[in-house]
UniProtKB/TrEMBL annotation:
Residues 126-135 have a biased composition (Basic and acidic residues). It comes from Hymenobacter endophyticus. The keyword ATP-binding does not apply. Its EC number is 3.1.1.29. It holds the Pfam family RF-1. It is an enzyme of class 3 (hydrolase). Residues 11-130 form the Prokaryotic-type class I peptide chain release factors domain. It comes from the Bacteria. This is Alternative ribosome rescue aminoacyl-tRNA hydrolase ArfB.
Length: 135
């Protein structure tokens, strides 16, 4: 079970910088871009098994120091970008740690098999009756 995003707050580092893109003069003076850093191996909330799973599945998103880096700069508000980064972070972890349910093999019931074979027989008879009619 994955802890809530707010449980990770003591282990997260936030860094702000000036965002790129549209925003007019606001872009030149406000640091609205938020960078979230999470040291995966130092986490107290994750088990060793979860850490290994995350290291494998998120390898392309980790820095060389083993930090998970999430960036948000979609909004003009630093607070909303921080919330977005937290949401992205939690989604990343939950997707990476999701274990699909194991499929159990099942057999069709005898009634379903009988019904399927009757349907096939009926369809075959219909096709067999087609053809040229002799007078």
């Amino acid at each position: 079970m994955l802890p809530a995003a707010t449980d990770f707050l003591p282990e997260l580092q936030f860094q702000t910088s000036r965002s790129s893109g549209p925003g007019g003069q606001n872009v030149n003076k406000v640091e609205s871009r938020v960078e979230l850093r999470f040291r995966l191996l130092d986490s107290q909330l994750l088990t060793d098994e979860q850490k290994q799973t995350l290291l494998q599945k998120l390898a392309s998103k980790l820095t060389t120091e083993g930090e998970l880096l999430v960036v948000a700069q979609e909004d003009r508000s630093q607070l909303r970008n921080k919330e977005t980064a937290l949401r992205k972070f939690h989604e990343l972890l939950s997707k990476a740690l999701y274990k699909p349910k194991a499929r159990r093999a099942t057999k069709p019931s005898k009634g379903a098999v009988r019904q399927r074979l009757e349907s096939k027989k009926k369809h075959g008879d219909k096709k067999a009756n087609r053809g040229r009619v002799d007078f």
